[in-house]
Model the fold of this input.
Amino acid sequence: MRGLVARRIFLLVLGAILLSGPAAAQQTGTLSGTVRDAQGGILPGVTINVSSPALIGGARATTTGGAGTYQLTGLPPGTYDVAYELSGFSTLKRGDIRVLVAQITRLDVELGVGSLQETVVVTAHRRSSTLARRRRKRTSRRKCSTRFRPVATPG
Done:
């Protein structure tokens, strides 16, 4: 009799554990989509940052794959801010994105080309003092050797 009771308790506990897994997994949602450029081309390597007060432990991030797609799973239900960043493109921010329990929220976006910035670094080297002195001597000799000639004026 004791063996039968122990077996039933074991099966009840095992069933509770197995059934709690899918129930817990359904307490979250998913955010997914595709990132393209203005011409419709896919953009791999885009960083997607997701933030929300619903997230425990701070913001989450992912990057788009080779097909320009992304997927963030296990998001608690709530309202999210999503930012898309890629070098050479304008950063795109979307707010008030709702993620629901056991639902896939699809968010396809298009990134525009950003402004190109170029940095030019100029490095100056100090010339040796002997070279500078030589140049000054040549310049001063030229100034001294210049003579004015009288110009005849018609009279």
The radius of gyration is 36 Å. The mean pLDDT is 80.
